[in-house]
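We modelled the chain as a single entity of 277 amino acids. Its sequence is:
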Amino acid sequence: MTRYAIGDIQGCHDELRALVTRVGFKPDRDQLWFTGDLVNRGPKSLETLRYVRSLEHNAIVVLGNHDLHLLALAFGSRRKHKSSDTLDDIFAAPDRDALLEWLLALPLVHFDAGYGDLLVHAGLIPQWSAGDAVGLAREVESALATNARALFDDMYGDQPDKWSDALFGVDRMRFAINACTRLRICTREGRMDLKMKGGLSHVRPPWRPWFEHEGRLTRDVRVIFGHWSALGLVRSHGVVGLDTGCVWGGTLTALDLDTPDAEPVSTPCGGYLVPDE
């Protein structure tokens, strides 16, 4: 079995299928690890969901912020459609309920202790170990299974922006979701800036990319993430960053997780959006 990690797809289904063919994925034995943001902004979110779901246990998927946005539209009461959304085909599909229920059951974090690999969409604050991240993710997943509408109605917002073990209730859930699906930079004390969307030239002390903090408790595992298209491919500090901006005219990238020093494999994207930063 070979495990291939793939960066943010965002509805770029044709590019995904081309990339899967290029890496020689064998659906009867290999696994695809997806960094989240399967949907939105690209042209074929419905086809992307159908394909990834059809892989069943051969797909390891974590939720991204765009996946949560889709779920909030479906199961919440307060979230509104955005003009940039490309999700209408999902809501009109005859299998929409099955697809949304499948998506709702996906985790925020996947950790394979045997391989020492942790998959998350965006990032983890320095104060969290792999076990902490998994535990908080399970709390969110339990809340979604119990009362998804209540969680989605209270999910949005940038506060609290600093971690504390004393956080509870909605604040605790919101912070965990924001870190796992929106984080790019933070301080070493675990304060997040969720507004910054550019590349490294936009980062000023005391802010640093979340994975560069020396005291980060997840340095004992390999963290695989996406979300930061302006950063592109990252293979340093014990992490693998795979959002290479497919929907923005970049590429969709895969990496063989089981071959040391494997070269990433990419397929070009036609470019459905123009970066505004």
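As a brief sanity check on the tokenised model: The chain has a mean pLDDT of 95. Residues 3-268 form a domain with the Purple Acid Phosphatase; chain A, domain 2 fold (CATH 3.60.21.10).
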